[in-house]
Input
Amino acid sequence: MKNSKFILTALCLVLVLGMMVSPALAYFTDYATAEGEVAIELGFKTVITEEVDGLKKAITISNPEGPEACFVRVKALAGSDVTLDYSGSGWTKSGEWYVYDSILEAGASTSVLTVTPPLPAGDEGAGQKVVVVHESAKVIYNADGSPAPADWTMAANIVE
Output
């Protein structure tokens, strides 16, 4: 009697599991094919230009390629005890970054942002290094066609 209940339970279990195998196999065996090719562009690429005049760095960012408009921002890095001076129209300080006030359309360039490290008395600036970092983020438009604020979590990190 005990064996017959056990066998009956095992058969029911095998029957239920067997019914579940068919949909699972269909998932793993279903496929679709496609032909042809379509060129896609993944994002955009901004280019930074730095012109050095003595200790001053004149920074311009351009968006030469692609159909995408973008937001751009710049941060200059120097030694921990160096306070950098920034000047230029069209740029606003936001935390550690200087954000370009306008949307950078494809084929356009920003206005010049000048970064100058202070020059200690009696120093000609030998050994002063200023590294400039820039980020760009795609412009996302609202349903009414107005641009949404910049989302810097989606910044393009292009490493060459």
Q: What stands out?
A: The helical segments are 2-29. DSSP finds one helix and eight strands in the chain. The CA atoms of residues 21 and 73 lie 55 Å apart. The first helix runs from residue 2 to 29.
